[in-house]
Amino acid sequence: MNIRRLERQETLDALHLVWDVFAQDVAPLYTPEGVASFQDFIRYPNIERKMQTEGLALFGAFEGSQLLGVGGILPTGHIALLFVRREYQHRGIGKAILLEMCSFAVQTYRVSKFTVNASPGAVDAYRHMGMHDTAPEQNAGGMRYIPMEMWAASVPLKKKRGKGVYIAAGVGAACLVLAVVAGAAISRELRYVAENGVDEYMQDGSQWGDDGSSIEDWYDEFYGGYGQAEDGQEESGIDAIPEYVDEDCGYDVTEDNYIYTADNTSSTTIQFEVYYPQVDGLDAEVQEKVNTALQDCALDSVDKLYLSPSDEMKEKVLGEEYPVLASFVEYKVTYQSRSLLSVVFQDYSYEGSENDYHVALRCVNVNLQDGTLYEVKDIVNLDDSFVGQWAQVMRDEADDDTFLSELSAEDMKDVLGGDTKDGVYTPEFFVDEDGLEIGLSFRYPADSQDDRGYAWVTAPFDFDEIGPFASDSGFWALVQ
């Protein structure tokens, strides 16, 4: 199945499908006045005018050349249309169209919330897609509907420019909690948990599709995992990093995890699912250092939010009506040799408030001979020459010549040296098959004009390119 934005010449066929499905499934619930109002809305001249002025984006789901379903979204994030041929309903096609439209709208229109006026018969389906009711049933002009909404952080983005770029979807999402299934994070609706309880939520989550499918089936079918290639698209994010693994490195890498979900004893939702690698077969003292570093990096959010919260975090949770503490961490071993292990972690977290959603990159680069950990400032000379080259590669990766323009050259040196500028910039690097990447994980203040929507960006260098900037650190002997 292929889902894409419709061309102008495909509009008429799409509207015929919309009307046919509406007449069968929705019209019986409307008064004649309501049916006439909808029919007027989907008249070809009206829709064409909206499309020409970018007031409406239409999407279609195709099997070969056959159009199976149609969706339409406004620049405000309002879902204006979502219809699937009756014979193809209950197969998840509507969910797939919705995700495609929402991903498009986050990146094109920069919306933070999606809304829909759901017909009574479609409410359950929209709930399963992540929408939640915002008001009782309404009646306007003979059209019955239930207002619903969904925040943008529940939508995984598919379009990311390169392997060294990860776009943060809708930072600042409300009413959501991370539900972790099938090795990936899917945002779920916080108020449902608060009102119905974690047990019911978990039970519902195992068989939640309107076609009886599981949430795992939905995730695999309609996203396939963060950053994975789909329909010929290039991989991006940590999945796109080309790993180097020495099969004869002399030690084993296994997986461990920290998984915890609080019971339903208060309005606070707590959910952690953190995965991280561990090594076995090294010198005992070095092995302990390495494994501790890997575990600590993976559990950074868990420690900050739950295991060792600050007084500020405690006060933040107490001040929230529906507090949420959640973290899902995935990882990738990008470089594994006898002497060096490089691991990247990607953390999706809610940090006390339902309005405080973040995606962060963290890296561990560790010497397997003595347990030494390396940071950016350890491996390159942070002089004008390097910073100028690095900044240009970062801008090339972001495809934006003004990216990081808020920082002077001296500021960049400070940031790469470990000055986070009040937590906005965190320097990271990792080694992979092609060389190494040096970049930043971002956490801009709300409504910052400097925020381009990226969670992290890294600049790639092959070993020849980085050579002139290399420090005299023993790190470089480990990758020769």
From TrEMBL:
Keywords: Membrane, Transmembrane, Transmembrane helix. The chain crosses the membrane at residues 165-186. It comes from Faecalicatena fissicatena. The keyword Coiled coil does not apply. SUPFAM superfamilies: Acyl-CoA N-acyltransferases (Nat). The keyword Nucleotidyltransferase does not apply. This is GNAT family N-acetyltransferase. PROSITE patterns: GNAT (PS51186). Residues 1-162 form the N-acetyltransferase domain.
